[in-house]
Prior knowledge:
This protein is mainly α and 330 residues long. The chain is 56% helix and 7% strand. It contains 13 helices and five strands. The strands form two sheets. The protein has a three-stranded parallel β-sheet. The two termini are 34 Å apart.
Amino acid sequence: ALRPRALSGIQPTAGxxxxxxxxxxxxxxxxxxxxxxxxxxxxxxxxxxxPQDPAELRANTRLAAAQLLAAGLDPExxxxxxxxxxxxxxxxxxxxxxxxxxxEASRMTQFKDKSAKQGADRATVGLFTYPVLQVADxxxxxxxxxxxxxxxxxxxELTRDLAExxxxxxxxxxxxxxxxIVKEVAKIYDLQDPTIKMSKSASTPKGLVNLxxxxxxxxxxIKSAVTDTDTVIRFDPVEKPGISNxxxxxxxxxxxxxAELEKEYEGKMYGALKTDLxxxxxxxxxxxxxxxxxxxxxxxxxxxVLAKGAEKARAVAAETLAAAYDRVGF
Length: 330
Ligand code: ADP
Ligand code: NA
């Protein structure tokens, strides 16, 4: 039987991905290659919904692709591409814009959050219709599953609504996707303030583990993570957010359960846990950095991987777009 199709996009953030991106998203992408016909893209069209520097965007997009490959995406087992290499995204995006109610788009909470950050008068129409482009991203590939975090649930609902609306008005065209919200997905917190999510924008430099940091810098950040004045190593996100965060990272990286770790560290000091986790992190990031650098040092190989990915993606996207255009009356 054919494998279910999965689609996910990741923003080309400035420089390195962080540990939260890896443990909360990229790791799932790698796993889904085995069970799904998976399409992954670096969403550079979405990246220009806020002001960008062209040279930086180009470099960050390539760097994001290099990191995804370094993390284990295998072009033989998935389709990895850059969104702007597949013009059908913008083309179907326009059709979807014309099917979306203004009020409906206005209810997207992420726009409210992001435009508030920008200053309301600075926010672009592109930022406003970002979720509608995301709808096109998903529907173009007739995706069955969309691996997303809880914060994206509303956008998946919009995708389902618009797919149903199009199908009803113009005839059966799009697969209705189901959110593939990975329940047990790890949420990683800032190492210095474990009550906030680790994030590129909100974390302090010492609280943020960049995957491309020098391994000794990463080890130091782990060892100076904020914990508590107690001494017991126990998973308790309310009373012990710092220790719990370290246990989550440790468990997700090694596959040991939190219960096993609690047992292993019974009667031991926080320092022992931090030292061991620092070693685990160094073991993970060292080859990750090397592999990323190898792709960056060999632009021909990276270009060729991305060109093949775009070609595979376009074969699917063009077919869907042709059907949609035909039904619309083009
Ligand atoms: P950031 O919040 O740093 O800007 P993004 O919003 O670009 O990161 O997120 C990219 C992906 O990484 C998303 O799938 C998001 O759910 C995941 N992610 C980001 N931060 C974390 C975190 N601290 N823990 C778990 N997953 C995260
Ligand atoms: Na996000």
